[in-house]
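TL;DR need structure tokens for one chain.
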Amino acid sequence: MKLLVVKLVTLLSLVVAGDIVSYDGYKVYRLIVTTSAEIDLLSELRNDQRIDFWSRHRIPNVPVDAMVPPDAQTEFETLLKINAITYEVIINNFEETEIIGRSFERRNITLVTISSGGSNKPTIFADAGIHAREWIAPSMALYIINQLVENATNAHLYANVDWVLIPVANPDGYEFTHSNTRMWRKTRSTATICYGADPNRNFGYHWGESGSSTWQCDDIFAGRHAFSEVETQAIRNYLAIHSHHIKLYVAIHSHVNGTNYTVGNSAELLYTSAGCSDDYAKSVGIELSYTIELPGGGTSGFDLPPEDILSTVEETWEGFKAYHQYVENKFVNLTN
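>> reply
TL;DR here they are.
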């Protein structure tokens, strides 16, 4: 058995030399070890940097999660079977990323899918960073991704429900807030006088109506026409293909003051705003569609103090877990 372990470790070591550009095809295994001998066997594998053990337990019958690259999965599973170690694959593809379009300035519009495999499962979809200056929104999306793919205790959250997130839906504007104008809100497409349009007024549902502007220098300029911006086109095109299994759409924005959230129609609680992504999602058949306004920095406006970022995303993550529970209860047939 020692020989088989050495062979696997050697195989994994051979592929360390190449740079890993993605985790496509990586599987995450959940192992149940019952004896000290099995624990010792896994301890030998921990010496290889390519097997990423997410759990460090050395106690029998406590699950151990490990991520394994595609080239080593057959050997890894063979080793487990020979040693009668019980396992299950809890993530078939650790990280699926997709470029669904490019911004006006040719930056990638990246979409991340987190799934345990299968197709046409009920899906939670979220866009973030559609307004460039709302920096806490991309942080929230990244925290969701982090909790799903790096926290093994959350594996049940993508067992029956897929998650799809766009961390930065307006990458040109987001970059511009870092390099030039902190309070920039719009895209960076060119026009005759002023740059950009408000992408959250550019969607083709009641486009150009109340709460938007026809003046191109206005922060709520709706664009020359519905979907004039390539950034909104990318989301539209993705939804055209996948909306039939997206059950919940969340547009992540900021900011409102404080951490006591009010639930209701945004047109009544905030203001009317035609041409938004959440309304468009509802119009193409997504049953549940919401906007969440994260807290700002109080007197600092959109500049949430760094020390407040973690507490904000942590408390909002609890809300997303509630979203998941509702979607799973409503749309997943747990008897199958």
